[in-house]
Write the structure tokens for this entry.
Amino acid sequence: MTKARIFLFVGFFLCAGIESQGQSMALAQSAQPGIDSLIELRSRAQTAAQAKHYEQATALYRQYLSLKPNDDEVRTALALVLAYSKQFAEATIVYKDILTRHPHDLDVQLALARVHAWQKQYAEARAIFEYVLRENPHYTEAKHSLADTLFWSGEDAAALPLY
């Protein structure tokens, strides 16, 4: 029996006062979200994010992740929404957590570097952008993001060739 099922079982038993383990297990299993409800929840979160309703998107992504905690694709979407809503510290934590499992994910590296740049942490951003470009010298987004960071930090001459 998984931890989630045990939790649901105990929760149902305590809340409903059901004495039969068979009935409790049936209730716990029926309370678990189905694939359709997860897809709907994720879709609603994406729609809210696209509409720039970041607080709503954050809540929906968190709800989704409470049901499917190992979904790093959704965790990445959550980090992006956090960054867009200027919750940079939390976005950084989420991106770094993802990178513990996927250290060579250049898209997540790029997103983390952007968060650093938006916080005017130019040295940290530059180091990550340069790492990404060493790994993939043809990554145009990384090259342009590095150029933006160099420009913002006052290094115009270094930025221009990258555009």
